[in-house]
Amino acid sequence: MQKKTLTKEQALQKLHQYCAYQERSHFEVQQKLWEMGVSRADHDEVISSLIEDNYLNEERFAIQFAGGKFRMKDWGRKKIWYALKEKKVSDYCIKKALNAIDEETYEKTLQSLAEKKYDSLKGEQYLVRRKKTTDYLLQKGFEPDLINKALTSLGE
User: Fold this and answer.
1) Architecture of domain 8-56
2) What angle do CA 91, 56, 21 make, to 5 degrees?
3) pLDDT at 2
4) For the RecX second three-helical domain, which residue ranges apply (predicted)?
5) Which of 61, 99, 126, 150 has the fewest CB atoms within 10 Å around its CB?
């Protein structure tokens, strides 16, 4: 069965809705264009049109993505950085997005996660508790030096 292809205008209409629903990266829109069967020659034109109409803004996407992952999933900067890299976001936009995360809130979140995890390991030996807590926070994407600072302030 032949895959249905859309014209540039039809694709643009669908992508307006796709981008209005939530912020998207250029890469996600590119993938969507492939799925829709839009000819390769029209990709750049469609993306340019979306940027001009302010439906697509990589910087806005990166800031919203970073803020959302930090607030909702308690991700650290490293994990957010890798996730944005995966979505092919530019280094400039990634840096801007990570700088948009409030430093004080970031450290409070890290401290709170460290305390919760550490307390949940009550039966374990000190070093095991510390190691498991560190591993958990590293997996969440927090920086090793900040993790050490947070664990030191737990006062053991």
Assistant:
1) Orthogonal Bundle (1.10)
2) 120
3) 46
4) 57-98
5) 126
pLDDT tens-digit map of 60-81: 999 999 999 999 999 999 999 9
Quickly tell me which residue has 């839009």 as its tokens.
38
Specify the pTM. 0.88
In the chain, what are the domain boundaries?
Answer: 8-56, 59-99, 103-152
